[in-house]
Amino acid sequence: MNKKDNFVKGLIKENPLFVSLLGMCPSLAVTTSLENAIGMTLGVFFVLVLSNLIISLIMNNKKLAELVKPVRIPVYIVVIATLVTIVEMVMHAYLPSLYFSLGVFIPLIVVNCIILGRAEAFASENKPVDSLIDGAGMALGYGAAIMLISIFREFLGKGTLTIWGDLQINLAFIFNFLKIEPIAMFVQPVGAFLTFGLILAAITAISNNYQNKLAKEVKNNG
User: Domain limits of the chain?
Assistant: First the structure.
């Protein structure tokens, strides 16, 4: 696999949320606004990229790898927890509103199965540069997924899109034109599962249609 394919796979083919269905609970919990999704994306990107890099550096060193292999999972968790603590402290100090909005889901990044999964499945067996690229692709794929969910949820539930702080796009005129009110259900837990299910169904339908077209082309050419 070349570096481009390594990066792109996390965005589409092996998207952590829409394909592998990993990290669903925190993803659905924080997507009540686009700002929350952007903040979580930044945190996950920092942790996933650096944890992949550090773990790959450790496992590519023969002496360290011999020491770490028997207790590799606890070692991975210590690395990830250290990076998450840095993210939590930085957010608390410089982005307090985002910190309190994300709440317990910041420290829960430590047990996010996407991060631990990439450490075990990829970073521990590949070179540092490839592991860094893998982490960046997976983090951006995850971020794109939760931002897409949050856009639908906030728009349908509140009629707004909160990009960052006071930077907000008011789309209430669409509801006024249609003479309806925003559907508050979409910013509640049930709305998260409904939105996720609808997006997943749309992606599956598009993917199946694409696969069917490819099969027909192969059959016609054959």
Answer: 3-221
